[in-house]
Amino acid sequence: MIRNEAKKRIEKLKKLISHHRYLYHVLDKQEISDEALDSLKHELYKLEQQFPEFITPDSPTQRVGGKPLEKFEKVEHGVPMLSIEDVFSEKELQGWEDYLKRLVLSAKLEYFCEYKIDGFAIALIYKNGVFSAGATRGNGKIGEDVTQNLKTIESLPLKIRDSKWLPQKAKEVEIRGEVYMEKDDFEKFNKNLEKKGQKPYANPRNLAAGSIRQLDPKLAAARPLKFLAYDIVTDLGQKKHSEEHKILPTLGFKTDPGKICQNITEVVEFWRQAAKKRETLPYLVDGVVINVNDISLFQKLGVIGKSPRGIRAFKFSPKQATTKILNIKVQLGRTGAVTPVAYLKPVQVEGVTITRATLHNEDEIKRLRVKIGDTVIVERAGDVIPAVAQVLTELRTGEEKEFQFPKTCPFCQAKLKKPKGEAVWRCPNPKCPARKRENLYFFVSKKAFDVEGLGPKIIDQLVDENLISEATDLFELKEGDLLPLERFAEKSAKNLVEAIEKSKKIPLARFIYSLGIRHVGEETAIDLANRLDSIDKLKRASKEDLEKIPDIGGVVAESIHRWFNSKQNRKFINNLLKVGVKIIPPKAPPAGGGKLKGTTFVLTGSLESMSRSEAEKEIITLGGRPASSVSPKTDYLVVGENPGSKLEEAKKLGVKTIKEKEFLKILGR
User: Residue 325 and residue 307: Cα distance in Å, rounded?
Assistant: First the structure.
């Protein structure tokens, strides 16, 4: 190829490769395959090797280059990279607006809200439209030159895409944003590290920051980093911050579209919606950034300390927080399990005030080396009970007290036992009053008999007044028994008696679950009901029969068999039938087992078209199996509004996730 032809071909290849980079990284579109794009890049590389005089800084081939640095050079920011002050509540947010109104008096306040990506802040300089330098925030005034590392990021344009936005006077343009890593990429990267026996990174932000601060650009290039822009420092004629988010994509940058909000009420609604969506987003988001939208007004408000007055980060409630342990007590479960519980100085975690956290068992107390009076980190993930994650021993004063695990049951004084191979101490006394109460709470719960309006407080009242001592007594209560009790009037007494009567008709799976058999959760109860379609068959089933049921092993089979062979338990079932409990057998699946035969579903979040229990019934009717937790055997995770931690677990295990619309199609709705 002659020189002039090579030059034209190189320019066309650069333009085409940049176009497809823009489609993929900014517009989330793909017109050609990755393989085809790689082929174009390879052709460009070969031509540039043949004609090196045509290599320019904005060429896609220059993303990885340069020798490892001995150290990073310091760079002074023309405009300081200031920090953003955080707010954690609607009250604090309203206080910020009240403060602004006192400063601006009659000026109307309009806001621009965008997601706060948990990444690593970077400033980029473009000279005559070509990327020339990039620096870290540093101390806000002076950062480090990390240009070579930033060039390795495919989503960061090496050349401004549309130069019409660059006035003649703006020879130099500064763009700011976040370097980040998507959650899926982070998980894959960590797995590779673990395979090599290396220590994984704690979170995507740490990995992104560590990658940008590598002295060897090739190490940064090996990591799947991305860039999202949020600010144009240079005056390109923009009057509002929202305009910058429209300009940035035309320049070649991916950005968050954000939303203009006219008042704090709209800001709070945007924040709430963002909090619901955060688990489904591909990257970590730890809050919402709120700017006074009018740029001249923003500048007029000025700076206080290290933060501009016209911007705030409205953070999501943390999944972890620190607090003090005021006391440690033990609780007794329905199976006799003794669980130590930390009573805490109240603290907000994920929008909920936490006053108690589990310490799991005696071994966990020893592992954490926790004492009464310790400052601890507590965490709450999804629907999991809050737990003590870490003790901050550095904050001890010497006045903390050791917790002595009891040797006898605090409620019936029976000597506690720890079964072989278990970490949990148990009260062996089936007549223990605390165990009996816990069994009653469990018996009337939503997944069991589901007695509307009958919670622990009313059960405590009924037990304390000697109106009930076991579950069968509930079905013989009359309105006259309840009227003398505190908080009961004629209507509330009538409603409760009617709710108890209504609960007498119960599907077999929920009846089995209500019995509180050890190792038998909701899923196992469903499996037992589907395979042995009556309580009589369950009574007659041998241990070997039970072990033939999928997912029921020897330990579970032994527990079920032992329970149904107890005279006391058989008498309990007979007494329930005598007081009018009607057990509804499961519907026979369609011929051939139903179209969902052998398919396991897990649900997370709330569905619009049906309740979770209705969804599970439909799955069972069609021959499928609803499960409460994600495992490698799960076929689908159905993701509703405000999903919990199951979504992350499904991604880790490679389980297919579907939205409600697709789920309804599968059901045939």
Answer: 35
Domains in the chain, please, with CATH?
3-62 (1.10.287.610), 85-315 (3.30.470.30), 320-395 (2.40.50.140), 433-503 (1.10.150.20), 507-584 (1.10.150.20), 591-667 (3.40.50.10190)
The residue annotated as part of the active site, out of 46, 91, 116, 401, is 116
Q: How many CA atoms lie within 13 A of 22 on its CB side?
A: 18
Is 26:254 a contact under the CB 8 Å cutoff? yes
pLDDT one-digit tens code per residue, 108-159:
899 999 999 988 999 999 998 899 999 998 888 898 999 999 999 989 999 9
405 close to 339: Cβ distance less than 8 angstroms: no
Q: Is 633 noted as a catalytic residue in this protein?
A: no
Query: For residue 278, what is the DSSP state?
Result: G
Q: Structure pTM? A: 0.57
Q: How far apart are CA 607 and CA 272, in angstroms?
A: 18
Q: How many other CB atoms sit within 10 Å of the CB of residue 224?
A: 16
CA quadruple 518, 519, 521, 525: dihedral sign: negative
Give the tens place of pLDDT for each residue, 69-119: 567 889 999 999 988 888 878 888 999 999 999 998 777 899 999 999 988
- Six-digit token string for 448: 């069991």
Residue identified by tokens 């229990």 is: 613
Q: What's the rounded Cα separation, in Å, for the pair 388 and 549?
A: 37
Whose structure tokens read 């509180």? 516
The structure tokens listed for 393 are 């021993």
